[in-house]
Amino acid sequence: MSDLTNPHPTPRPREELPGVPVPVCAETHLNSYGSIRRCCLPTGHEGDHMEAGGDTWEPPSVVLTRLYERWGRTHRFAWTGRFWMATHHNPRSHWRSEIEPTPELLEASLRRHHGAPSGPDPENAPLTPEEEWAWRQQGERFKRQWGLTEPGSG
Questions:
Q1: Which of 62, 82, 64, 80 is nearest to 72 (CA)?
Q2: How far apart are CA 111 and CA 120, in angstroms?
């Protein structure tokens, strides 16, 4: 217990104070639907971030390193805090900028518009199953919201 005669007691760390919540990591990301997900782990945790539902994501610094390893010869990358951006080095490129809510969708978009990456690609596939699923879900959401259909689909 504290000494009631001491006017300046030594504070205890926050996690030891009963009834006081431990601060959580402030990192957020967007899922493939564009919904915000917040990390529920304590501030200063190591490794991947995790939302309350159990889904995890890599820290932006790890993702940026991977993107530069695969696509750095042709593109620059940025994490805005919400979106992932890629810009082609060549200003006359037929598709200069890509903006997506997840790094998986960004890479799928880059593959679709620019072909295989010049850097290493461990999947050795045009799209991973997660990327394919994310694009399909996003397309279905847009169809429901905007009533868009592919040309010739009737």
A1: 64
A2: 13
pTM: predicted TM-score of the whole model, two decimal places = 0.60
For residue 98, the model assigns a pLDDT of 92
Cβ distance 89 to 76 under 8 Å? yes
Sequence-separated (6 or more) residues with CB below 8 Å from residue 89: 74, 75, 76
Alpha-carbon distance of 45 to 72, in angstroms, equals 29
Long-range Cβ contact pairs of 55-60 (< 8 A, separation 24 or more): 55/31, 57/29, 59/27
Residue percentage of the chain with pLDDT more than 70: 71
- Phi/psi for 36 (5° steps) reads -75, 135
Phi, psi of 105 (to 5 degrees): -70, -35
Distance CA 49, CA 42 (A): 10
